[in-house]
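Duplicate of #3305? Posting structure anyway:
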C-alpha cells in the first residue's frame, strides 16, 4: 500500500513539472526576434524631437562695397559764431551740397569721409551780403538692416569747419575750428541694384577757435540740415 502511494506522488510531481515548463516564457532570443524590424508585422516608432531647421543669415551686401553719396538740402546756422556775434546776424538760410565716400567693413558698418559746401542768404545785420561754409572729416555709419532694398542708417563723425561772410561795412569775417560732433539720420531706397536715394537730416556742433578779434570768446555753433541724398553702390546689390 505504501509503495502504491509513493508511485502516485511521483507521477503527480512529474505532471506539475511538465505544466510549469509549458508555461515558461520564451528566452530573450525569441523576444529580440520579435522586435526585429525585418520581421513582418513589426513596426518601431521613433518619437524623438526633430532638430530645428537652420536659418541662413541674410546676404552680406555691404562688406567690401564702395558707397558714394551726394546730397542737397537746406541748412540753418543756429546759436553764436562768437560770444558777441550771433549766427543769424551774418548767415541766413542756406543751401548745402554734401558728398561722402565710404567702404563697407562688415555686414552693418561702413567707414568713410564726408565733405560739405554751403551758401547762405543774407543775415539780419547785412543786406546784400553772401555767406559760405566748408567742412570735411571722417565718419562711421551703422546700417540698421541687411539684405533689404530699404536701408536706414545712422552716422556719427567729426571734422573741420570754416564759415565766412561779409559784415555791414563789407569786411570779410571768417570763423574756423573743429566740428567735434556730427550726427546724421537717413535711409536709402535702392531703386536699382547700384543706385539708391532717400532723405537725410543732420545736426553738427562746432567751436571756432580762429575768429576775428572783435567777436568775443569761443562758443558752440549748431548747424541743422535736411534734404535728399543720392547713393551709388559699387558693385551693387
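Output from current build:
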Amino acid at each position: 500500500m505504501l509503495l502504491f502511494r509513493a508511485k502516485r506522488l511521483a507521477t503527480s510531481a512529474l505532471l506539475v513539472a511538465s505544466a510549469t515548463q509549458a508555461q515558461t516564457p520564451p528566452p530573450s532570443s525569441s523576444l529580440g526576434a520579435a522586435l526585429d524590424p525585418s520581421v513582418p508585422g513589426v513596426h518601431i516608432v521613433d518619437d524623438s524631437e526633430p532638430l530645428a531647421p537652420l536659418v541662413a543669415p541674410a546676404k552680406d551686401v555691404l562688406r567690401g562695397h564702395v558707397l558714394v553719396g551726394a546730397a542737397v538740402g537746406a541748412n540753418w546756422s543756429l546759436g553764436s559764431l562768437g560770444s558777441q556775434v550771433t549766427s543769424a546776424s551774418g548767415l541766413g538760410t542756406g543751401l548745402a551740397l554734401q558728398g561722402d565716400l565710404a567702404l563697407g567693413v562688415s555686414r552693418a558698418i561702413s567707414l568713410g569721409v564726408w565733405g560739405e559746401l554751403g551758401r547762405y542768404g543774407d543775415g539780419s545785420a547785412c543786406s546784400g551780403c553772401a555767406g559760405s561754409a566748408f567742412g570735411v572729416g571722417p565718419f562711421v555709419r551703422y546700417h540698421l538692416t541687411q539684405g533689404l532694398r530699404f536701408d536706414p542708417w545712422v552716422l556719427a563723425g567729426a571734422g573741420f569747419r570754416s564759415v565766412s561772410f561779409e559784415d555791414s561795412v563789407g569786411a570779410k569775417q571768417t570763423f574756423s575750428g573743429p566740428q567735434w560732433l556730427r550726427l546724421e539720420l537717413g535711409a536709402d531706397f535702392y531703386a536699382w541694384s547700384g543706385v539708391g536715394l532717400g532723405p537725410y537730416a543732420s545736426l553738427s556742433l562746432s567751436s571756432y577757435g580762429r575768429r576775428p578779434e572783435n567777436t568775443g570768446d569761443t562758443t558752440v555753433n549748431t548747424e541743422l540740415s535736411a534734404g535728399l541724398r543720392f547713393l551709388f553702390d559699387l558693385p551693387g546689390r
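Confirmed duplicate; merging threads. The CA atoms of residues 37 and 45 lie 10 Å apart. DSSP finds three helices and nine strands in the chain.
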